[in-house]
């Protein structure tokens, strides 16, 4: 069985949905499972709904209507008659969304986030499944929450692999074209959970692992995995082949093409991952598999914007040793700060981290009780794999470098 994942950019409008059909007709879709994200910027729009729910109730209904209007325009372009069943199916999902917001009593932002945000994927897959049927492509719509079971860590849930494996083995018919949602799961009480932002790639890998899939293909608006993000770097080059190990390194450091958790289940069963263009589906793309580390062997550049650099030093010039570092890391863990770089000396400790959950203020208040604390927000973290001297000099030119760290195959710079 093959797993295809289509992201939001591939289905951002009616033209994109129609192109999914062309891709399937071009490359084939027998024994295939489609994992599909929310359409376009729907996740961002639903985040605005959540924000209004907590902070600005007067704007709540209008923000929901914006999401509904966007999808309705796509529906009207895809289906000739408003009497088509897809219209009431989508209306039913929006009614379910409004019902939840009307009855919810939980003040837990992360819980509410997961219950609301998942409607993007539920709506997109409903529309695409119905359009595939309309064009003569038979398919089975699956609610991923019935298959991927997780704990209750909302917004970054951990997969219960045993339950998930059993559900997928028993519930997925390998002989059909199936379509399901990326990014989502459900906890032991059947509340919706999410696997982390950009988690649809991970969903594809979970299904591939459980189904012993032949391959996973991620369809994107780029020709494959590039050695740099073309939004920030000129002359980005296509990587033809990457080993699992190299891809995991790139993902860990923040390469946006592949989700960090995606590769681990694929590597365990040596399932190849292909990253291809939905604009040119017959192009070679990039292969991620066991074998050659990198082809061609060129420097790879990754940038993470809007990071936080926290620098700590002891108040009495005593050494920062294992006990202090252990305490610092526990605080970083408790405040869900993702650590990207650490650097320490005898009396100082610096960490560059991602304040994804907006817990920085509380963390700093605790740290200031024991350390002298300097914090710089909005810094950029550059990571270069397989750097050459020329590539480093070009990258550093004109930048205010706050921290630099060099390992065998990796150089990292934190810049103001």
TrEMBL record:
Under catalytic activity, the entry for this protein gives:
L-aspartate + ATP = 4-phospho-L-aspartate + ADP
Its Enzyme Commission number(s) read 2.7.2.4
The Aspartate/glutamate/uridylate kinase domain covers: 3-277
Give UniProt keywords alphabetically. Answer: Amino-acid biosynthesis, ATP-binding, Kinase, Nucleotide-binding, Transferase
For this chain's UniProt record, which GO biological process terms are given?
A: homoserine biosynthetic process; lysine biosynthetic process via diaminopimelate; threonine biosynthetic process
Record: residues binding substrate? 43, 121
EC primary class: transferase
Q: Where does ATP bind?
A: 5-8, 231
GO molecular function of the protein, one example?
ATP binding
Pathway note = Amino-acid biosynthesis; L-threonine biosynthesis; L-threonine from L-aspartate: step 1/5; Amino-acid biosynthesis; L-methionine biosynthesis via de novo pathway; L-homoserine from L-aspartate: step 1/3; Amino-acid biosynthesis; L-lysine biosynthesis via DAP pathway; (S)-tetrahydrodipicolinate from L-aspartate: step 1/4
Task: Name one cellular component (GO) term.
Answer: cytosol
Family indicated by similarity: Belongs to the aspartokinase family.
**Protein name, entry field:** Aspartokinase
What is the scientific name of the source organism? Sinomicrobium oceani
């Amino acid at each position: 069985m093959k797993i295809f994942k289509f992201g939001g950019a591939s289905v951002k409008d009616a033209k994109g949905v129609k192109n999914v059909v062309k891709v399937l007709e071009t490359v084939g879709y027998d024994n295939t499972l489609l994992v599909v994200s929310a359409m376009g910027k729907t996740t961002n729009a639903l985040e605005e709904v959540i924000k209004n729910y907590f902070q600005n109730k007067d704007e709540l209904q209008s923000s929901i209507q914006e999401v509904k209007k966007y999808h309705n325009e796509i529906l009207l372009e895809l289906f000739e008659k408003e009497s088509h069943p897809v219209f009431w199916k989508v209306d039913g999902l929006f009614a379910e969304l409004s019902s939840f917001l009307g009855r919810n009593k939980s003040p837990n932002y992360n819980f509410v986030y997961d219950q609301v945000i998942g409607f993007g994927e539920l709506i997109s897959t409903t529309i695409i499944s119905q359009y595939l049927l309309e064009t003569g492509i038979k398919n089975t719509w699956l609610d991923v929450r019935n298959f991927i079971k997780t704990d209750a860590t909302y917004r970054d849930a951990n997969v219960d692999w045993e339950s998930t494996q059993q559900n997928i083995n028993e519930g997925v018919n390998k002989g059909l074209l199936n379509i399901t949602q990326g990014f989502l799961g459900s906890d032991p009480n059947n509340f919706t959970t999410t696997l982390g932002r950009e988690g649809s790639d991970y969903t594809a890998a979970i299904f591939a692992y459980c189904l012993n899939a032949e391959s996973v293909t991620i369809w994107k608006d780029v020709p494959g995995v590039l050695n740099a993000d073309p939004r920030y770097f000129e002359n980005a080059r296509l990587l033809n082949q990457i080993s699992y190990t190299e891809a995991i390194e790139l993902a860990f450091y923040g390469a946006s093409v592949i989700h960090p958790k995606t590769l681990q289940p694929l590597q365990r069963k040596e399932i190849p991952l292909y990253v291809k263009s939905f604009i040119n589906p017959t192009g070679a793309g990039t292969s991620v598999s066991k074998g050659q580390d990198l082809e061609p062997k060129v420097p790879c550049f990754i940038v993470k914007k809007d990071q936080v650099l926290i620098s700590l030093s002891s108040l009495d010039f005593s050494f920062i040793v294992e006990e202090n570092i252990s305490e610092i890391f526990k605080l970083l863990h408790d405040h869900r700060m993702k650590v990207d770089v650490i650097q320490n000396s005898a009396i100082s400790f610096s960490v560059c981290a991602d304040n994804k959950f907006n817990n920085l203020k509380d963390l700093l208040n605790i740290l200031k009780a024991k350390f002298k604390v300097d914090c710089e927000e909005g810094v950029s973290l550059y990571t270069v794999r397989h750097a050459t001297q020329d590539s480093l000099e070009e990258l550093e030119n004109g930048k205010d470098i706050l921290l630099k760290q060099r390992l065998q195959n990796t150089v990292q710079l934190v810049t103001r």
